[in-house]
Prior knowledge:
mainly alpha, 9 helices, about 45% helix, 2 domains, about 190 residues
Amino acid sequence: MVRRTACLVLSSAFIALVAACVSDEDPQASVPPSCDSYCTEVMQRCGGANLQYRDESECRRACQHMDPGTLADANVSSIGCRLSQLRSGNCLAAGPFGGGVCGARCATFCRMIGAACVGIASPPFGGSEGTCNEACPSFALDPGEGEGPNQAAFPGKNSINCREHHLILALKDREPHCGHADIVSVMCR
Length: 189
C-alpha cells in the first residue's frame, strides 16, 4: 500500500508539472508594460524593412512620451497596446505613432509635438497641440513613403510620414527637426 501512495503522489506532481508546461498563458502577460521591455522587444523583433527606430536610445526617447497602459489596450496610444501588437507580429502598430492601430496617428503625433518641441523659438503649430490636431488630418498618409527610419529619399512629400520622421529626429535634436514637422516644412513638401 505504501508503494501505491507514493506513486499516486508522484503521478499528481507529474500531472501538475505537465499542465504547467503546456499552459497557453503568456509568461510576459504579468509583466507591466515599460519602456525597458518595449524597446528591447521592438529592437529584437522589428528589423530590416520593419525597423521602427534607428537604435534603442531613439526608442527610449519616444517611449518616454507614451502612457504605460496595459497589454489589453486596443486602439489606445500606450506602451501596452504597442507591446501587444508587437507580440502578434505587427511592427507598424508597435512603432512610435501606433500605425493607426494603437491610437490615432494625428493624436499621437500632436501629443509628441507638444512634448518634444516645447520651449523652442518657433515651435511647430504655434506651440499648440490643438492647432496641430486641426491641421494634421490634411497631411496625407503615403503608404509608399514608409514609416519609421526606412523612409523614401528626402526631401519627403507633404505627408504625415515625413513629419513623423522629423519628429522622431527632433526628440534628440530639436533644431531644425521640430520645424521640419510643422505645417509649412522645407523637408516635407
